[in-house]
């Protein structure tokens, strides 16, 4: 009788813990400390489950009195691993996938802009948290040129480096306008830089220099740039704070605020494209979408649509399927994802984040 009760208690407790880790939104714990971190690493969770099943398999052979409990735990861990594997495969594990659905230089700014009602319009967005300019301007510019980027969102990148990137790209025939928001100049993490091709038209920064809603994210700056003549999408370079213990309230506030910025996908508007370091996976976005096909506000995730939504962008020292996808390109429904990939060639460039690039086309 005692062994049955022990097995039942252990089994139910394990089932509850594994359920929360596999589907935290079911009980509304996706934005709580510890659970938020654990739910970020689904690939690692599968690896840990496999290792635990192997250990329990040995225990099953040598500890006869515990065989019933051990077998139950093995079944639960196998189910947990299978569920997470299914979620990873559903979100996509391809690193290179195709979807369905102030200035440095003397660029010509007479462009009419890029409007979402032009079915031929398309643009490529490159996003990279540079860990305080670590890769250097030349390396960032080289990657942007290789990707033929029209927009660069660069969290933890100073204005000085942004200007150097733009100068290098101008010399290669691809000029860029530079927009930077800095909360202070003490830490490079407190700067975010956005580069926009003059071909997209004139843009002006509308996000506040000061931290906190309603004008910006709380701890690390986000850049919102709107087209001066109203033709073209609003472009947002994102940097939400990480969900460390003493920043949980700010982290949740950042995600709420970003969801509020991702609007305007209705017919007749040019919508929003936002990219950067959200310090959150799509699991953490749960409850912040306004429609079934959106993940945050009115925005959809390019990686999910392109089949690379499970590929880890942080940290670079971990294999992509063991890392966490916290860097995103999001867009309102009037932008279709043509391609999206996580760039793994820059893992030794100095940043702890992998760059991501997505090509979007306007829906006519």
Instruction: Determine and state the CATH class of the largest domain.
Output: Alpha Beta
Indicate the multimeric state: single chain
How many domains comprise the coordinates?
2
The low-confidence runs, each spanning 5 or more residues with pLDDT under 50, are 101-112
The count of β-strands is: 14
What's the helical proportion of residues?
A: 25-40%
What is the CATH topology classification name of the largest domain?
Answer: Deoxyribonuclease I, Chain A
Reading the helices and strands in chain order gives HHHHEEEHEHEEEEEHEHEHEEE
Mean pLDDT: 91
Q: What does the largest sheet look like?
A: 8 strands, mixed
Shape estimate:
elongated
In what order do the strands lie side by side in the largest sheet? 1-13-14-3-4-6-5-2
User: How much of the polypeptide forms β-strand, as a percent range?
Assistant: 15-25%
Q: Helix/strand/pairing class, anyone?
A: alpha+beta
> Number of DSSP helices?
9
CATH architecture of the largest domain: 4-Layer Sandwich
- CATH level-4 homologous superfamily of the largest domain: Endonuclease/exonuclease/phosphatase
Euclidean distance between termini CA atoms: 68 Å
Q: Radius of gyration, Cα only, in angstroms?
A: 22 Å
């Amino acid at each position: 009788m005692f062994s049955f009760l022990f097995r039942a208690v252990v089994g139910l407790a394990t089932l509850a813990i594994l359920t929360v880790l596999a589907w935290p939104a079911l009980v509304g714990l996706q934005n709580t400390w510890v659970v938020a971190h654990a739910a970020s690493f689904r690939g690692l969770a599968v690896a840990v489950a496999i290792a635990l099943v192997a250990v329990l398999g040995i225990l099953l052979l040598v500890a006869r009195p515990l065989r019933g409990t051990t077998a139950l735990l093995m079944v639960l861990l196998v189910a947990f691993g299978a569920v997470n594997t299914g979620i990873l495969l559903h979100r996509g594990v391809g690193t290179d996938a195709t979807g369905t659905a102030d200035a440095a230089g003397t660029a010509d700014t007479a462009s009419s802009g890029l409007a979402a009602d032009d079915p031929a319009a398309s643009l490529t967005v490159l996003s990279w948290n540079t860990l305080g300019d670590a890769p250097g301007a030349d390396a960032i510019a080289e990657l942007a040129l290789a990707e033929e980027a029209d927009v660069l969102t660069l969290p933890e990148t100073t204005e000085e480096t942004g200007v150097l990137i733009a100068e290098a790209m101008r010399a290669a025939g691809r000029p860029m306008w530079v927009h930077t928001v800095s909360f202070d100049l003490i830490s490079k993490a407190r700067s975010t830089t956005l580069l926009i091709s003059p071909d997209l038209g004139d843009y002006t920064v509308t996000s506040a220099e000061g931290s906190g809603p309603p004008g910006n994210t709380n701890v690390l700056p986000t850049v919102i740039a709107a087209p001066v003549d109203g033709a073209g999408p609003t472009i947002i370079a994102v940097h939400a704070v990480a969900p460390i213990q003493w920043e949980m309230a700010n982290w949740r506030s950042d995600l709420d605020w970003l969801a509020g910025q991702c609007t305007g996908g209705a017919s007749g508007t040019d919508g929003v494209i936002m990219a950067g370091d959200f310090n959150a996976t799509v699991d953490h976005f749960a409850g912040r979408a306004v429609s079934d096909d959106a993940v945050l506000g009115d925005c959809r995730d390019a990686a999910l649509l392109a089949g690379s939504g499970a590929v880890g962008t942080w940290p670079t020292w971990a294999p992509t399927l063991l890392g966490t996808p916290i860097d995103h390109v999001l867009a309102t429904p009037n932008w279709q994802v043509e391609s999206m990939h996580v760039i793994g060639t820059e893992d030794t460039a100095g940043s702890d984040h992998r760059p991501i690039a997505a090509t979007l086309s306007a829906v006519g």
